[in-house]
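note to self: dont lose this again. the chain is below, predicted strucutre after it. 346 aa total, dont forget to put it in the shared folder this time
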Amino acid sequence: MRKLHPLPLLGALALLAFRPATTAGQEAVAPWASGLPGLEHPAAWGLGSGRVAAGVQHAERWTQGRDAFHTQWVGCGWRMGNAPQARRGARWTLGWSSMLDRQASGWTEGRHLIEGAVQIPLDKGWNGAAGLGVGLAHWTLDGREWSWDAQYGPAGYNPGAPTGEPDGLTSGGSWNPEVTAGVAAERPARRGNAAPSLKAAATLHHALRPIQPHFFPIAADTTSRRLSWWVESEGKMGRETLTWRAWHRGSLQGAAAWTEIGGSIGRTFGSASRYTRDAQSHDVHIGLLFRSDGILRLPVTWRHGGITCWIAPGLPTGHRSPAATGWAAAIAWSPVRDGVTPLASR
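---
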């Protein structure tokens, strides 16, 4: 079988990186690239050498005079088969991801997917992966944003009149089938080689464009097909205990788009445990990222063994986007055995 080269994919992602960005219709803060990329890209479950990966992320954002808007992601991936034997051919991975995003319009968007990915060896040390996610997407309206008190009218107070308050918190909604599909590629760092690791992915969301519920109060861009991409690299800075990481992400949905660029510098503390399967060292990374919709964050990451924790407080930039100010935090886990690489290096 003829091996494929990943350069065409990386070239296409580079062209998308320079697309002008607008922000109408998009609010969600997608999962940070070094946390658990499978939450955004189904094909990313096929990257790395880990047998199991799981994580959860919470993001909080707000605007002046408004309550906070929350977004939660949770997901896990499990690689099937025997890892040493699978290295000689395709490797299959099953994944699951779920997201709930409360938006300023009063609507909450949710996505719940069962995902599958296959990793295939490519050319010159590269691995490729293709992924597919199938599930449900829904939009639910919080009635508290649209309620009124009809007991007070032109004729004065009437205790027998309906209050206008909804029964419960849900006063509308829409359920639709959801299909996502994407590709990914990686060049893992190799011992004794100074070349940095490279990873990239691109995914099409809402492949089956959902039907908008009646009286839909938010921009149509929120329900249209969305393309997201991610490129990341990591390497050493001369000294064995210092590392660097750089990444670029973006999303294009109808007339709405955003791009992100970021980087971090890290240091290893303790024993690197070259000759054991269990990592005893602690890795700390401090970085900076900026998004075109006004998000400026200072991510701090801590890794030990198979656990990765990070928090990214946001700084105000004067942007009018509901996502312009806020913070995000996450924890991810992958067992350190059977040749598993730390999750945050994916």
